[in-house]
Amino acid sequence: MMSHPLRMPLRAAALAALVSLAGCQASPPDALRGTGDLGVVVERATGSLALVDTGDRAILERIEGLGDLSHASVKFSRDARYAFVFGRDGGLTKVDLLRGEIAARVMQSGNSIGGAVSQDGSLVAVANYEPGGVRVFDSETLAPVADIPATWEDARGRRQRAKVVGLVDAPGNRFVYSLFEAGEIHLLDMSGATPAVTRFPDIGAQPYDALIDPTGRYYLAGLFGEDGLALLDLWHPEAGVRRILPDYGRGERRLPVYKMPHLEGWTLAGGRAWLPAVGRHEVLVADADDWSLVDRVPVHGQPIFVMSRPDERQLWVNFAHPDNDVVQVIDTETREVVRTLSPGEAVLHMEFTPRGEHVWVSARDSDRITVYDTHTFEALAELDSESPSGIFFTDRAHRIGL
Amino acid sequence: MMSHPLRMPLRAAALAALVSLAGCQASPPDALRGTGDLGVVVERATGSLALVDTGDRAILERIEGLGDLSHASVKFSRDARYAFVFGRDGGLTKVDLLRGEIAARVMQSGNSIGGAVSQDGSLVAVANYEPGGVRVFDSETLAPVADIPATWEDARGRRQRAKVVGLVDAPGNRFVYSLFEAGEIHLLDMSGATPAVTRFPDIGAQPYDALIDPTGRYYLAGLFGEDGLALLDLWHPEAGVRRILPDYGRGERRLPVYKMPHLEGWTLAGGRAWLPAVGRHEVLVADADDWSLVDRVPVHGQPIFVMSRPDERQLWVNFAHPDNDVVQVIDTETREVVRTLSPGEAVLHMEFTPRGEHVWVSARDSDRITVYDTHTFEALAELDSESPSGIFFTDRAHRIGL
């Protein structure tokens, strides 16, 4: 029987509509947006990443499926569109901030801590505990590019693999990292046709973390097994590694390694390095030229992160348990505490907006992120977030070592 | 007559397709992009803005209709999506980098030079020659927010309006600028309900340009009518303005004002200020703490821009006519010229990628932009561009004073 004459046009119309829509995604006028005012917050308990807008002071959406985020860190792609999330479980996830979804993901080791993006943006390197080494991936596809074992010879001459810690990017498409058990620093040059590693042995006992200064010149590794820090001047690698701040680490009592202040908690501002003391309720001040200790600022508790407002006029400091419900603000000129704030319980991290007008503070046990005006100290917004920890804004894409 | 049974389905299908497409913009998978790797190049002769991708090293498209771009400057919106173009003819144009088109435009004065975006991104201020003053606009809509005349009293007690030069943004949602005929610096605070202006009179004769350091603390104005520069410490405005580098300006012969080195040609790197000498073929080196002159580096010609690679290890320098077909590279540690390059004729500007792996150089009279690898000095790309002048990358959105 011939189809009813009215049904055929409708069916054809529906088919045509489907054919058109298949090649066409609805793009309302505000679908486009800049990436410069975006950021992410790691939400540990739910294993999610909250995507935030720092201009609107709002959470836009959440991305799930990132695995174990209990010690996750984040770096950004060169165009600021993607976040690379490094999970403790060895997961490397590339998150599209514009689509709010996972773009790529690899489980690239058994146990991992941190990573970095190369200077030119083409590579992502991951620091692995197990197996010990560095894996380098294409930042576009996450296809493997290089696998650099962190090998060393122990006292009995056996080749071992060490846990890699303190991985940072350095100018010249290089990466610098440390080997915990080996007491070595390695410099990986990815700028040529073949990866090239330069080893710096005997730099000190058990480097547990590291940082690179904002110009990418000085690599500083904290030592768990002895006092002081190891310094490598990347402008003069031929000069080797030297020890600085020889008394650093001498606290009232030894801290376990997981309580040692992380080097990301250091900051350089006003020609000085500002850093958490070990086992003392102080922020230490060192001369950034010769690394001599110049002052100690008494603070509320054991400092964890000492972070500089971008204009270097203030430092914001959070503290370890049981004093971790407080944040203090230090004036870099007077070196005095000018404000004490209560953002909530278990303050884990702070992040300044790129030009510093606001700071975002996570309070894990209050399930809250507070946004402060850094001039007036007014709390401008409080955002609900389950167990928030690390906060990362996209301007990090443009900064060496971040 | 009844329509042919086959024609009706086709017509209905076509209608349905049109209806679908009307509510739907084609958005191919790669329509979304980050804004962190974008930039613009001012093309004077054609009055156009070339939109560039620094990762692909390519010109994406050109935007026209920006009026007189002979002395245009560019600032970026907080989210890095828009460029604000300040034209000499008083035009203020907001350009959408994602759509490649003008989003808004106002002719806001008769004659203008430069502008800035407020720290929090909400305001755009424009420095006007005629009538002399600063106009502030909402950065979203370009709706007028404030009109601040640059008034002063001359020697005969008459109120006059002066040309405004050297306008910069400063922390706290403030702007700083200078009044050419008046010899004054003004500090405009836009953080409160009402704009508030603080005047600093008698700062020196004929400030013609200015800069603010990367922390937004020191405002430096160059003086055309006498030697030396005027310095305002924004952390201590109560201390007033003082004179620094008292011999600066003493060249072999006086230069006309349009040949005076612009303060944007200064850079701070490695604890030093590096600046073009006046009327001498030298880059001067000053201590950034006390502003004492510490060294002079002999170079190819009269320097115009002295720009630091982001890691502060190199300075790239271009020169005034007739030596403007050369760029030299200075090592900041040895203070020696390590390279001399020939990017073309009339090299007007240079811009480093955010982490410094490349630098883009415009050669106006060769109609060319050259992209160099800053480590190897290899010319990686040459792009055709008609009379290119200023080059600006979006990471400036995140940096105080830029």
From TrEMBL, chains A, B:
Domain of life of the source: Bacteria
Signal peptide stretch: 1-22
Alphabetical keyword list: Signal
Keyword Ubl conjugation annotated: no
The protein's name in its UniProt record: Cytochrome D1 domain-containing protein
